[in-house]
Amino acid sequence: MSRLVRATGALILTGALVVPLAPAASAYAPTDTPVGEAAFTLTLLHGNDPESALLHASADPDFGGAARYTTLLDQLRDSENAGTEAGDGESAHRGVVAVNSGDLYLPGPEFAASREEGAPFYDAIATSHAEYDAISMGNHEFDFGPDVYAEFIGALPESTPVVAANVDVSGEAALAALEAEGRIAPSTVAEVEGERIGIVGALYPPLASITSPRDVVVDEVVGPVQAEVDRLTAEDVDKIILISHLQNITYEERVAKELTGVDAMVAGGGHEVMANPDDALVPGDEVTVHPGSGEPLSYPLVVDNADGDAVPIVTAGSNYKYVGRLVLNFDAAGDLLTVGDRSGPVRVSGTGDDAVEPHPEVEAQVTKPVTDYVAELAETEVARSEVALDGTQNPGVRTQETNLGSLMADALLDTGRRNADEYGVPEPRIGIQNGGGIRNASVIPAGPLTVLDTYSVAPFANQVAVVPEIPRGQIKELLERGVASAPAADGGFMQVAGVNFAYDPERTAQVVTEDGEVTTPGERVRNAILHDGTVIVEDGEVVDGDAISVVTNDFSAAGGDMYPFRDADFTVVGSTYQGALERFLTGTLDGRISAEDYPEGGAGRIVIGEKATVPSGGDDGGDDTDPTEPPASPSPSPSPSPSPTDGPTGGPTDGPGSGKPGSPDDGKGGTLPVTGGALTSLIVAAVLAIGAGGGALYLSRKRRSATGTGEIGADPPPSAAERGRTVNAGPPEW
């Protein structure tokens, strides 16, 4: 195991947790190893968070993409095995291991292509061609629940094990069967040129708070991982890699400090970009700043473990944009001597001096059919907007009311009311959409909106869910949760329909446990008024009255983002939230989003102060006005249809998820690029590039019939016992 790890002088280390470098690696070599020599050189090729970005990097079609990534990975594997780029101190005895640390897919338009009836699992095809020695579990693998994840694993070659030392899948039959076959395991051992390389996996413990693992149980990290490392060590495996999906680099650092016997860690979930000064980056990318030190993250980041040994930690951005290359030089005892100074991210480029050609099989089996599918979505207009729609995150839907947030909340309320009778629930009076579930992370310009735009806004498999008869005190608790983190950005910040409220961010914020138990009642919500004029909070106090039914998505209803519903019964009412948005646009709004109903800056549904704007003109209609001081942007709210028309509705493209355009997980603040028309042009460019053509395609797509996928069929809604959560957004780095 690694007693001594010292990188070459090219590596710049950052942060208080980082180990200082020695003047020269050779000064720390064991006495029985010749200075400057290594007995074995292992190149660790790694990726993380591809997240179904199968076609190209979201911001630039000339970079990324599964087909180019596969070509580059193959080229690096060949050159590293041959040693054609070997540097000083590397051994002629050498080998390569390739790994991926999770989030192999993500709900979105590219993923949705795989959910078409009879379609293969395109992400699994791309992963299979990568020929990884091991992959880790990620949180997004559970976005559609354990059964879809089991389908994905089953589509991989048996030579690609899924490793997770702190995960118990015994409660899920499909995953348990794969574990029994050895397809899922705590670790695996790769045989490389006579050397045994142990690869251990780990997954984020609070998994249920950000996705839908159902009966999958995730333990804490250090204990289970250390036990597996010790077991491998006892079996004379003397080189061990940890591939973990812990959501951010500081978590990885904490874990590394507590472990022993791990030679290197490959991180996932945080989307950090690590690089050194000479490393080429994808246009628009910047090296991530270390949260602790404020310095750019060099490649690798090195920290001391529990024994005082140094451990390199690496990650490689996201979305198929980079292949990480970590060159590790070991002595004859299996101890790590140095990290090669040519280690770093290698960008996946289709242009310039470092361009690679797309892998022909991935191009034919993945790129072509997925491009055709996404082009169809981009060509189907569902509405025209008179105003730009703001889906930015910070400032934006995670910090304040925006017109796109209101539109999304209105869509939920519209579907909840439309489908209430069919599903035997009372009509909801309040709609809640957590800001983290609005994922386009940009401004959609005024003009046409397409089906692809609706997927970009509402990408996940979340179902519209009605939570009946919530006591008014608990309604206030929900509103308090929505503003508890303000002014900081939080995926739990809520966008609302059917209610206006005012809050004071200087007052005490609510504190709530992961189980939804309120330990510190919030005092921020000062006034709340339903759109029929009913006052439910006045001067910070709850006004007595009847319970109120709420419509939200099933992730939030089940306690996601720590919304304090506290296991309240809820009913899924026949539509995904993307389907609700599409149906609201095409039906209730008749294809027109007016600047009057959805002004830029919001209509005053959520304001800072003591008095909420007062809706006038009846339920969900008329100008919202403050009786003492008019709001900056007075505007009526649209009136969702009060009753069902043709039974449960979800729109012609009801189905799982949407894409991840832009970088909604990058955690960056500020205004983000405009999407919409720009995104469509990128898709069209991709289509032209592969000769797919741009003609209109058959739009009556058959969806797989399954509860929780958005398919509207004859089956009754699931019981409370049958319901499983579906993922929404977590903090920005997720």
From TrEMBL:
Residues 648-660 have a biased composition (Gly residues). Residues 611-675, 703-734 are annotated as: Disordered. Pfam families: 5_nucleotid_C. InterPro entries: 5'-Nucleotdase_C (IPR008334), 5'-Nucleotdase_C_sf (IPR036907), 5'-Nucleotdase_CS (IPR006146), 5_nucleotidase/apyrase (IPR006179), Metallo-depent_PP-like (IPR029052). GO terms for molecular function: 5'-nucleotidase activity; metal ion binding; nucleotide binding; UDP-sugar diphosphatase activity. Keywords: Hydrolase, Membrane, Nucleotide-binding, Signal, Transmembrane, Transmembrane helix. This is 5'-nucleotidase C-terminal domain-containing protein. It comes from Nocardiopsis eucommiae.
